[in-house]
């Protein structure tokens, strides 16, 4: 018997990763879900809902304009969250990405707790009570759940972190994400949802407008330079930072969703969140990779990167661990990050800027 179509809700769906993920989902067309009889099966994607507190004038991809439904609202409003999950007449998958970022979270404690902590709880509750059999619930956590650089921390800058590294967040953002991981684990242990979390490092390179992450300059150095726009960085050129590309970040979310419940139970046990493997890059390496990626005639069209270093911020970022060991993943390079961005967003490159060896 054919499975009923799945309802897929992406909170933060109008954000960068939300839209990248939505496009990948539409291209796949099906998802692994729990059926009413308790077994897992493949279901066609019926409705795809992008739930976000703000809807941009234009989405990144035309196919999303055509095929995705946009629901504008705030995940810190429990009623809005309930309205997203449907009536339980088919499988439900939630990708919970909607969040306040680290910079904004440090500026506004109440907003960060309301959105990132209460919002996660509201989405978990909505999924639990929607009537669909054991909804898959994929959540984005962050490397900011860890601390580093304080004598009492469990991890120092030189450590390669793993899923067993203890969380000692230094920011309200990191604290809310660590709490959300524990909520996801307990809702899963009780069988309310089938939760899986991805602890992401900084995603490079994000398209469109910068977000309010304290480390957003690691994307700006690629994006703005290729767009012919100058960047002034508050973080020093030699400060290494843990990053992942946007393609592997989306792959990680899909891989976690598609893993069988038996495999997840056996591998993760009571913990439901894993690190997405990262590589360490500096701003100088990213800048050099951009310049090496274009032919000589395009070099003069690139933006320039200058440094107006905020020593406190630079030292804080420099104290983060730069390597996360995760469950899968090929080694990326700075050159890959630049190429993937330029291939996926050719319209964002300055006129006349092409990649070596391509027509882009
Ligand atoms: N991009 C990264 O480098 C990175 C790194 C680690 C973790 N993450 C996590 O990945 C997720 C997606 O990040 P992104 O890079 O796409 O960021 P983004 O800022 O592009 O997207 C986040 C989206 O959440 C929405 N949002 C904010 N408050 C909301 C609310 N109250 N209700 C509903 N939606 C709300 C925003 O409007 C935005 O569209 C976030 O949970 C983030 O914490 C991202």
From TrEMBL:
Q: Which residues form the signal peptide?
A: none
Query: Would the keyword NADP turn up in this protein's UniProt record?
Result: yes
Q: Which UniProt keywords apply?
A: Carbohydrate metabolism, NADP
- The NAD-dependent epimerase/dehydratase domain covers which part of the protein? 8-229
Q: Matching SUPFAM superfamilies, A to Z?
A: NAD(P)-binding Rossmann-fold domains
Q: Which Pfam families does this UniProt record tie to the protein?
A: Epimerase
PANTHER family given in the database record: ADP-L-GLYCERO-D-MANNO-HEPTOSE-6-EPIMERASE (PTHR43103:SF3), NUCLEOSIDE-DIPHOSPHATE-SUGAR EPIMERASE (PTHR43103)
Q: What is this protein called?
A: NAD-dependent epimerase/dehydratase domain-containing protein
- Look up and give the organism this protein is from: Emiliania huxleyi (strain CCMP1516)
């Amino acid at each position: 018997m054919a499975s009923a179509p799945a309802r897929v809700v992406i909170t933060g769906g109008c954000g960068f990763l939300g839209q990248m993920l939505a496009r990948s989902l539409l291209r796949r067309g099906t998802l692994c879900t729990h059926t009413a009889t308790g077994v897992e099966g493949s279901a066609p994607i019926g409705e795809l809902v992008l739930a976000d507190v703000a809807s941009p004038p234009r989405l990144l991809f035309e196919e999303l304009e055509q095929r995705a439904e946009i629901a504008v609202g705030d995940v810190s409003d429990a009623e809005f969250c309930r309205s997203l999950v449907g009536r339980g007449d088919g499988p439900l998958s939630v990708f919970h990405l909607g969040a306040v970022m680290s910079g904004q979270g440090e500026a506004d404690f109440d907003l960060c707790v309301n959105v990132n902590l209460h919002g996660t709880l509201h989405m978990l509750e909505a999924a639990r009570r929607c009537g669909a059999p054991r909804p898959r619930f994929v959540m984005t956590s962050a490397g900011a759940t860890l601390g580093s650089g304080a004598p009492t921390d469990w991890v120092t800058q030189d450590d390669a972190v793993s899923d067993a590294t203890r969380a000692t967040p230094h920011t309200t953002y990191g604290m809310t994400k660590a709490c959300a991981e524990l909520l996801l684990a307990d809702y899963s242990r009780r069988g309310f949802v089938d939760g899986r979390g991805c602890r992401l490092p900084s995603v490079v390179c994000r398209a469109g407008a910068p977000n309010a992450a304290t480390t957003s300059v690691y994307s700006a150095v690629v994006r703005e330079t290729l767009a012919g726009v100058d960047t002034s960085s508050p973080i020093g050129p030699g400060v290494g930072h843990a990053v992942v590309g946007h393609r592997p970040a989306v792959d990680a979310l899909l891989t976690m969703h598609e893993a069988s419940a038996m495999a997840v139970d056996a591998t993760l046990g009571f913990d439901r969140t894993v690190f997405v493997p990262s590589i360490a890059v500096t701003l100088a390496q990213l800048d050099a990779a951009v310049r090496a990626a274009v032919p000589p005639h395009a070099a003069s069209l690139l933006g320039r990167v200058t440094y107006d270093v905020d020593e406190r911020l630079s030292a804080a970022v420099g104290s983060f661990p730069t390597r996360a060991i995760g469950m899968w993943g090929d080694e990326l390079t700075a050159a890959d990050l630049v190429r993937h961005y330029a291939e996926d967003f050719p319209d964002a490159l300055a006129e006349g800027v092409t990649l070596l060896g391509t027509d882009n």
